[in-house]
């Protein structure tokens, strides 16, 4: 273990002082394990153990703009500059899922879980995913032939992370929130099922001012940070933008002059997640698994089409030369006519003789026969091992959703539409019928190809005057059928390939009449499904799924509302580099039972550095606001719950970064302001007990056109280094400050590409455990 000189009375123990390969711009501790994820300036993700052993390094190939851990620490979410949110396995960094939720850079991520496990005893609705009772484990995506593990994005059979990502039966209900530079916030259950999207530009706060209704709205807003409360009932959003005042009179809207340009906080009502977490859990579990299985079917169709096309390409490459030979000999017959003439016992024509003996030959025929036979076997294996099991499980899961959709009082409120789910369930059943038909057509085609090749092999043997007694027998009628329907046609590929021009399969009128009669007996309402190809049926099924799952997305999005808005401080420049932290602590003053409503169980804390240019008479200060989450409801009851305090940083220092830590504590990282360069000088890290600070009540009024925190300029609290738990750092520090609340450790990054890990706990036992 590397340490500095022993300093007496230091509250924090230095564990490591290690070099880093590149400057770090994002760092987050795993919430459950001693793992630190870091993002370098060149957008590589490094995962280190507490002892600084590196486990893996990955590079997404795009600029990384945000990062956060899944609450159980088994996956990590990464926000990218192009609007993509990707999930990676903690074990090896492998990409598990990628979603293009945004159109611009994802600047912040927050992943929060419900405090109670689904299925706990009490008033919580228990739910079991019954699929495993009736089906084996879900099939995986088939691998393209000729590729080895790691060549593509497909998962190995031994890799269980992807399945675990979708298996949410034993997960606590959790929500991944992502915010972007254009003011949009996306919500996804378990990080994989999109359940809502809002844009803060659409929100407004209306008040009654001088008998006129005044509406305040944000313009050109960009999300800075989002934090979902631990009970999932509220989302606090900090954003930069211009707060403008609108007056609505006689349906005319007027914007009064310039608004307040700076940082603002909003409280969004997300109680739909808490109130309907059981229903959302079930829908998300079924829907996310259905989407995974849909990808299995898509990949299966692609691989099958590729394999069969390769075999048919070899067949036509060999047999198309017969047409050229016929033309060269001045004949006007077709290859089929030449083969039929040979089958009927007529004299072999010169072009056919040359083709069979010289161009094709016994070796060439066996090669083509093997290619077609192997392709047929591979297609059958893919259907049996991947496509058909996936389609069957999809049908079962859609049946489960269909049953839930009929419980209207519980599931209509989250947008599970019975009509759309019924249609999607029917489409899943139609695909199963298509799979059965495909297997019959494939089996018939492979059999007829084999019969045709057996006959040709015997013909070649006879033409070469070789014995043919040991050859397999053939059926002349099947040869004729092959020449009429398969020689220059491909019904197998027609079923697999999705073309721009729809191919309608001819069905006998008697069969169609029987299908229509079955509708009266509970059959499929769409009686035209047999005229469609399997690829077209899959396309329609996928479209019906998207339509059915879009309804919960839209419904939940509409139920997320803005409760309150608070101007924080003016900031003409971009506030993205302003140190900021949001956390929720239990309200120990409230005696709340386990199953009481989600209201007032937690207190929100918002800590931030106030930029020096914000206020002329407030310099080098840190602001902390608490109680904002429930202040709008408190005001209606005649009092305010919003409190705040301004902390003056000790002279000679400025705040580099900060982090709310554990229960009502805050870790500050301060640099000396007297250093001549960024890399010289020293820094200090100190822990402040937030609950001991003299918070001042912030009165709220209907007028939002001024900065509330400026009212605290006369009640600033001055921090004294000697009065706080502080530790001197022999380097000039830079952001980010990574603090682990679960392990009581902090990682400080120095300007000289070094990482210093400190144990924050004074208790020796805790320090030993962390080590």
UniProtKB/TrEMBL annotation:
<dbReference type="GO" id="GO:0051301">
    <property type="term" value="P:cell division"/>
</dbReference>
<dbReference type="Pfam" id="PF12894">
    <property type="entry name" value="ANAPC4_WD40"/>
</dbReference>
<keyword id="KW-0498">Mitosis</keyword>
<dbReference type="GO" id="GO:0070979">
    <property type="term" value="P:protein K11-linked ubiquitination"/>
</dbReference>
<feature type="domain" description="Anaphase-promoting complex subunit 4-like WD40">
    <location>
        <begin position="28"/>
        <end position="113"/>
    </location>
</feature>
<dbReference type="InterPro" id="IPR024789">
    <property type="entry name" value="APC4"/>
</dbReference>
<dbReference type="InterPro" id="IPR015943">
    <property type="entry name" value="WD40/YVTN_repeat-like_dom_sf"/>
</dbReference>
<dbReference type="InterPro" id="IPR024977">
    <property type="entry name" value="Apc4-like_WD40_dom"/>
</dbReference>
<keyword id="KW-0132">Cell division</keyword>
<feature type="domain" description="Anaphase-promoting complex subunit 4 long">
    <location>
        <begin position="265"/>
        <end position="466"/>
    </location>
</feature>
<dbReference type="InterPro" id="IPR024790">
    <property type="entry name" value="APC4_long_dom"/>
</dbReference>
<dbReference type="GO" id="GO:0031145">
    <property type="term" value="P:anaphase-promoting complex-dependent catabolic process"/>
</dbReference>
<protein>
    <recommendedName>
        <fullName>Anaphase-promoting complex subunit 4</fullName>
    </recommendedName>
</protein>
<dbReference type="GO" id="GO:0034399">
    <property type="term" value="C:nuclear periphery"/>
</dbReference>
<dbReference type="GO" id="GO:0005680">
    <property type="term" value="C:anaphase-promoting complex"/>
</dbReference>
<dbReference type="Pfam" id="PF12896">
    <property type="entry name" value="ANAPC4"/>
</dbReference>
<keyword id="KW-0833">Ubl conjugation pathway</keyword>
<dbReference type="InterPro" id="IPR001680">
    <property type="entry name" value="WD40_rpt"/>
</dbReference>
<dbReference type="InterPro" id="IPR036322">
    <property type="entry name" value="WD40_repeat_dom_sf"/>
</dbReference>
<keyword id="KW-0131">Cell cycle</keyword>
């Amino acid at each position: 273990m590397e340490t500095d000189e022993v300093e007496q009375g230091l509250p924090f123990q230095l564990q490591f002082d290690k070099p880093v390969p590149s400057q770090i711009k994002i760092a987050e501790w795993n919430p459950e394990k001693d793992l630190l994820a870091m993002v370098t300036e060149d957008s590589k993700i490094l995962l280190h153990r507490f002892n600084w052993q590196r486990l893996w390094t990955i590079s997404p190939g795009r600029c990384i703009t945000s990062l956060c851990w899944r609450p159980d620490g088994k996956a990590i979410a990464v926000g990218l500059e192009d609007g993509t949110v990707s999930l990676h396995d903690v074990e090896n960094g492998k990409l598990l899922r990628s979603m293009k939720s945004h159109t611009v850079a994802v600047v912040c991520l927050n992943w929060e879980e419900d405090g109670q496990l689904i299925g706990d005893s009490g008033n919580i609705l228990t739910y079991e995913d019954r699929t495993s009772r009736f089906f084996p484990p879900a099939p995986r995506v088939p691998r393209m032939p000729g590729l080895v593990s790691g060549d593509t994005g497909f998962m190995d059979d031994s890799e269980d992370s992807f399945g675990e990502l979708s298996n949410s039966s034993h997960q606590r209900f959790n929500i991944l929130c992502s915010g972007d530079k254009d003011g949009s916030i996306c919500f996804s259950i378990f990080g994989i099922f999109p359940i809502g999207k809002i844009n803060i530009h659409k929100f407004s706060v209306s008040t009654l001012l001088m008998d006129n209704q005044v509406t305040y709205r944000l313009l050109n807003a960009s999300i800075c940070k989002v934090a979902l409360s631990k009970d999932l009932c509220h989302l606090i959003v900090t954003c930069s933008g211009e707060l403008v005042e609108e007056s609505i009179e006689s349906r005319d809207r007027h914007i009064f002059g310039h608004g307040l340009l700076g940082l603002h906080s909003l409280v969004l009502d997300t109680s739909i997640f808490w109130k309907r977490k059981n229903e959302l859990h079930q829908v998300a579990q079924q829907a996310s698994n259905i989407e995974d299985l849909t990808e299995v079917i898509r990949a299966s169709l692609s691989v099958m089409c590729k394999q069969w096309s390769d075999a048919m390409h070899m067949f036509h490459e060999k047999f198309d030369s017969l047409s050229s030979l016929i033309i060269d000999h001045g004949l006007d017959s077709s290859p089929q006519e030449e083969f039929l003439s040979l089958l009927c016992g007529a004299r072999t024509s010169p072009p056919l003789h040359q083709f069979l003996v010289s161009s094709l030959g016994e070796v060439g025929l066996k090669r083509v026969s093997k290619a077609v036979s192997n392709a047929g076997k591979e297609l059958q294996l893919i259907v049996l091992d991947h496509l058909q099991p996936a389609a069957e499980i999809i049908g079962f899961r859609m049946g489960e959703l269909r049953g839930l959709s009929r419980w209207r009082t519980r599931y209509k409120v989250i947008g599970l539409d019975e009509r759309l789910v019924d249609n999607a369930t029917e489409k899943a059943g139609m695909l199963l019928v298509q799979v059965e038909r495909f297997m019959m057509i494939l089996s018939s085609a492979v059999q007829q190809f084999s019969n045709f090749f057996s006959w040709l092999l015997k013909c070649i043997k006879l033409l070469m005057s070789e014995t043919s007694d040991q050859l397999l027998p053939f059926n002349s009628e099947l040869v004729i059928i092959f020449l009429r329907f398969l020689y220059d046609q491909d019904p197998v590929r027609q079923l697999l390939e999705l073309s721009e021009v729809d191919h309608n399969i001819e069905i006998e009128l008697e069969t169609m009449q029987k299908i229509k009669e079955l509708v009266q007996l509970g059959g499929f309402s769409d009686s035209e499904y047999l005229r469609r190809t399997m690829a077209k049926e899959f396309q329609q099924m996928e479209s019906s799924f998207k339509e059915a799952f879009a309804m919960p997305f839209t419904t939940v999005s509409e139920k997320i509302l803005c409760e309150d808005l608070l101007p924080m401080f003016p900031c003409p420049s971009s506030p993205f580099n302003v140190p900021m932290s949001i956390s929720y602590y239990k309200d120990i003053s409230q005696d709340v039972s386990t199953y009481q409503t989600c209201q007032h169980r937690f207190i929100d804390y918002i800590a931030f550095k106030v930029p020096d240019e914000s206020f002329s008479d407030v310099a080098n200060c840190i602001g902390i606001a608490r109680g904002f989450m429930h202040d709008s409801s408190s005001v209606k009851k005649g009092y305010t719950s919003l409190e705040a305090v301004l902390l003056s940083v000790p002279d000679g220092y400025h705040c580099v970064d900060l982090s709310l830590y554990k229960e009502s504590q805050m870790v500050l990282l301060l640099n000396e302001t007297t250093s001549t360069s960024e890399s010289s000088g020293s820094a200090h890290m100190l822990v402040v007990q937030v609950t001991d600070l003299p918070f001042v009540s912030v009165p709220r009024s209907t007028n939002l056109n001024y900065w509330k925190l400026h009212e605290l300029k006369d009640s600033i609290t001055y921090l004294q280094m000697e009065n706080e738990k502080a530790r001197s750092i022999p380097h000039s520090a830079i952001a980010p400050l990574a603090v682990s609340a679960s392990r009581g450790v902090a990682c400080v990054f120095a300007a000289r590409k070094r990482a210093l890990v400190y144990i924050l706990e004074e208790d020796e036992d805790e320090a030993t455990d962390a080590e």
